[in-house]
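Practice problem: predict the structure.
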Amino acid sequence: MLELASTPALKALAINSNDGGTFGVLGAISYYKYEKETALLYLKKAIEINPSYVSAYNKLGWIYSFDGDLERMEENFNMVQKLDPLSSKYIGDMGQAYYYLREFQKSIDKMNESLKKFPNDNMLPWMKASNLSGLGRYQEAIDIYTSRSVASNTNWMLGYCYGMVGETEKAKEILNYQLNKNKMVYVPPVMIATIYMGLGDFDNALTWLEKDYEVGGQGLFFWGLKQDIKFDPVKNHPRFQALMSKIP
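Answer:
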């Protein structure tokens, strides 16, 4: 699918080599293909042509977070929020980037500050809870997940947290919900793998991570696996190492 998407973008570039949007699209495609250096070139070119290109800064922020570059991550996400201050989505993105950099408290502080501006937002509490889990404060995370107005009892991260505090039956209920849901609509396998991690079932967790790679592994949660604290218990497992070796 990504190769198909590249064709019209390259044709558009041949027609107009000074279109920032086209460079942005090509940068995004390269990003999803794990072609980091190519993505960086395209995205920076897109910004050179259009300094207000929010999506390009957003993608750069993610790339630098996966590189472990806190300064450049913050620089790009701060630019995103300067250009689009009314979008809570981009604030949530920055919160997740902090998560991968293990700057959990920075993310929690950012979410608390942003919730004053967006008190009814559902993503910002989710991100706060995710970072609380990174600090091992699972019960606080559970309290937030279950207070949200959407997916308050079925969210995959809630399932993970239940597993981590020993609420096995509740974790399994959410796992079964997600497994059944996956039979009808697509559920990113990494989400199911995460619940298995909470339950301490590492073999099944690895199986679902492998499934995620097989279907493309293009979700941000998958890309952050190398830095994701939830998967520390399997970081040295040969199957995990083999999976990570496929990602530049």
